[in-house]
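Input set for joint prediction.
Command: fold jointly, output tokens.
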Amino acid sequence: MSQHKGFSLLELLLSMSIGLIVIMVIAKTFINFNKTYKIENSLALMQENARFTAYMMRNVVASAGMIGSARMTSYLPINNQGVGAFNQIDVSNYFAVYKGVNNTWQPALPKIFNIKPKNNTDVIAIKSMEPITANLVQSLNESNKVYVSFAPQFNTNDDIVIADCLHVVLAHIKSVYYSVKNQQQILTMTQIIHDKFDLNAEAGKIQTNIFYIQNTGRKNIRGEKIYSLYHVNANGRKDELIPNVVDLKVSSLVKNKIIKIKLTLMSENDAILKSKNFQFFIRLFDHA
Amino acid sequence: MRNKGLILISVLIFINLIVLLVTIGFTISELQLRMSNNQLQHARVMQAAQFGLKTALQQMQQNPPHCQIDIHSTHDLSIKSASWWHSAQICHGKFGQLNYYYVVEPLQINNCLYFDGGSAVKYWRITVRAEQAAKNRAAAILQETIALPTKQTQVCPTTRYELSAYEQSWRRLR
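tokens >
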């Protein structure tokens, strides 16, 4: 008989069964690995987003209420001479949390913010002077002209703080003349500033930063609405910071000195790990 | 035989592909490692600057240090070169492997505030720059205003208040 007679039915069945079992085990392992990879990948992405948010917020929140050399207190004189409601700053509003409860906010969101946050999520508003400031190069007394050093440059319609250790004035810039020759800026304010400031008092822009969650108008692969964390800066410009943030809750600990921020982030493409909570703490400078 | 040459070429292409993949993998890992290192260095430099501020405050509570300078704008201080900070007139110290440098600016006296046994307070501004010892790569600049007790120079025309802390304001310039 020929040596090449082929396999018997039994051999064929046995080898096919063993092969099938091996393939099933490999496939199952692959599916499990793939699932784990997807979970780990979305978790890593969410953690990265949460870390970036914490970094951004820490930088802004740590400066809340900084208005120059003196600590902002209820007895530090702050005179508003021309700044609109959006950038007005005092001891009552330098760090404000608007709690989202029952589809409304407590206290009510100021219309001037011009934002549409997601219902039942908190909104944070932080006010301060920008850290890089210019110095007065001429003393100021009963005038609407303010002479300051050449940098940082100010622009028309900027809201600024003029401050020393004794008092603070909030003022609005009508026009700016840049004198390259004298290396100074001449700021014409909308109102006459009645307070007296000596040489070397400082002038800096007021920054109002708002963090909130809003619908982006986009949808994910599951067909759900995508919500993002938004940031409004001093000029009222809105930027989408982090996508897939569905909840923001703020609470204060140790008499408003420590702020706890809880974020809920949504996974972008994986239905197994749908969402995860992250929380971090920020120390608030005590201005009370 | 012709087939043997074909196998050699296929194997060479395959090895090249593997080398390419491994190189890409290494590059990505190295980049991630460098990013983590930078983040760590940045955090350490910030720690050193905070430590420098605390040291300067303790020094100020005993005696104003020699490194007093005229009042500068925060912009000017933030753009000062590393060599300016390394000059002899600047106070300095170490925090582990990191160096910190600080200067002090005398500000105004507030006769309407009192604190810690004094009849008025004098404001001082401390600016600290911390950096890596070996390379001047990562640097952080922090500024804090403090109030220290002093004697009244004028009568306060309004109500007098008692201060509750030395630290008055804090900001990060870089």
